[in-house]
Amino acid sequence: MSLSAHIPPQRQTSNRHEHLTALLETLKQANLDQNIVKTINYGFTAWSKDQQEPVRPPTAGSLRGPDAVLMTAFHKQYRILGWYHMCMGRISKKWSAVAIQYTKESDIEHDEYWASIIIRACWQYAKAVWKFRNEVMHGATVQDRADRLIATLQTKVRDFYAAYRENPQIVLSRHQYLFTSRPLEERLNGSYDITASWIRSVEEAILVLKHHKAAMHAEARSHFDPYHTTTSTDSDYSPHSDTASIMTWSDSSIASQSTSTLTDSDTANTPYTHSDPRPLSPMSSTTLTGHSTTAQLSTTTNTSWDRS
Question: Which residue has the higher pLDDT, 255 or 64?
Answer without folding.
Answer: 64
